[in-house]
Amino acid sequence: MAKSDDLVKYITQQVVTFIDTPRDVRQQAKAMHKEQREHWQTRWFGMLPLAARMLFDQFKIKK
Fold first, then answer.
1. Cα separation of the two ends of the chain
2. What is the per-residue pLDDT for 13?
3. Sign of torsion, CA 4 6 7 11?
4. What percent of the chain has pLDDT over 70?
5. SS3 string of the chain?
6. Mean pLDDT of the region 1-23
7. pLDDT at position 1
8. What is the pTM of this model?
9. Which of 13, 20, 32, 38 could form a disulfide with 42 if both were Cys (CB 3.0 to 4.6 A apart)?
10. What angle do CA 18, 19, 25 make, to 5 degrees?
11. How far apart are CA 39 and CA 6, in angstroms?
């Protein structure tokens, strides 16, 4: 029973903090988070796209 009470308390706190923060602050935080996020290719494949691009660029220069 205590676990469900804790969950309700946590959800209530999150909702209240969301409502209390102004819209501008939330939008700025969302934009900042979006800028700091890695590109989707890097998140999914690591350094492989960069290595492939560098390899293809070397072949273009030689021709």
1. 72
2. 97
3. positive
4. 94
5. CHHHHHHHHHHHHHHHHHHHCCHHHHHHHHHHHHHHCCCHHHHHHCCHHHHHHHHHHHHHHHC
6. 91
7. 58
8. 0.49
9. 38
10. 65
11. 37
Question: What type of residue is 34?
Answer: K
Q: What are 1's two structure tokens?
A: 């029973």
Q: Report the alpha-carbon distance of residue 6 to residue 11 in Å, rounded.
A: 9
**Structure-token pair, residue 5:** 């009470």
Q: Write out the two tokens for 55.
A: 């390899």
Give the model confidence (pLDDT) of 22-44 as tens digits: 999 999 999 999 989 888 877 88
The string over 39-51, giving b where at least 16 C-beta atoms fall within 10 Å of a residue's C-beta and e elsewhere, is eeeeeeeeeeeee
The model's confidence at residue 63, banded by pLDDT at 50, 70 and 90, is low
Q: Whose structure tokens read 């492939």?
A: 52
